[in-house]
Structure formats: structure tokens, C-alpha cells
Amino acid sequence: MKAETVTAICAVVIAVASLVVSVYQTRAMRQHNRHSVRPMLQLHRGWPARGRAGIRLINSGLGPAIIVDSTVTVDGEVIGSWNAPSADRIRERLTVLPSAVTFNEHEVIATDSEQYLLSVPSYEPQNHAELEDLINRRLTLKICYESLYGGENYTAVLRPIR
To answer: What is the pLDDT of residues 15-25, one digit of tens each?
Structure first.
């Protein structure tokens, strides 16, 4: 084998290795970028005496969450998406009317956002037992969302306490 042939083969091997490293690094960088804007929605129940109480939605991730879909269920019956008509159907069953914050499909929940979806401004156990029972034992809320990149199909679910 001639020296030129060996040199050419070595050059091709080095070029292919360089291409493999570049592709690997590009994939790693894309994955890092996706994680750097990943939202993380959380649903919490809270019942502080004489404080705002109810269902709280928090985006504790690093990027905004784009709502794809939502479903609210009470006693196993699907009410619909978490929108104004569904919230009103739930609230009309209660003697004390809680406030509600709803959203539509493709709505964006900002990073570090925190809002009460169904709540009373000043919780008192004797006056709001019906709402507490609804939220703790009868209501299921599922929110499907994604990041700016899309297609991840993340979910946040508030299930009844059994």
C-alpha cells in the first residue's frame, strides 16, 4: 500500500469521526435547550385558616407551559375542559360560591406563575366544608401541556384523596 493511500484513508477516518462527534454534540445541545425551557405544572390543595384556600396551579419549571387540553371530573362524571362553563357547572352545586380562574386551549402559563383555579379568599372550616369535600374527595382535574418546543405531552393531575 502506498503512502498516499494510507494518508487518504486516515483523512477519511478522521473526517467521519469528526462528523460523528459533531452530530452527537448537536443532539446533546438540542436536548439541553429543550430541558432549559421545560415547564413543570403542579396542582396543590391548600386550606390555611383565614387565608386563600382551594386549588393552586404553579409553574415551577424553567419555561412557560402551553395548555393543550384539560379535563375536570366530579364524582366520576366528566364535566368538560377547565373553562368558564365547566367551572360554573361545578360552582353552582355549592352553597358558598368560590372564585374561579379558567383557561383555554393554547393558553400560556408563564414561568413562576402561581394562581388559584378554584378558591375562597378567607377559608373557614365550618363555612367552606362543602368546597373542601368537593376538592379533596370528589374532583379530578387533569391538565395536559407542553413546552415551547411542543410534542412532549406533559400532564399535571389533581386526584381525589382516598
So the answer is: 888 898 888 88
17: Cα separation from own chain's centroid: 40
Q: CA-CA distance, 50 to 123, in Å (whole number)?
A: 5
How many CB atoms lie under 10 A from the CB of residue 97?
Answer: 11
Rg (alpha carbons) of the chain, rounded to whole number: 25
Contact 116, 101 (CB under 8 A): yes
Q: Quick one: CA dihedral 96, 159, 61, 66, positive or negative? A: negative
Within 13 Å of residue 25, how many CA atoms lie on the same side as its CB? 6
Cell of 56: 393552586
Q: What angle do CA 148, 150, 153 make, to 5 degrees?
A: 125
**Helix boundaries (H) for 1-114:** 3-36, 84-91
Cell numbers at 53, concatenated? 384556600
Indicate the fold that domain 39-158 takes in CATH: Immunoglobulin-like (2.60.40)
43-79, pLDDT tens digit by residue? Answer: 999 999 899 999 999 999 989 999 999 999 999 999 9
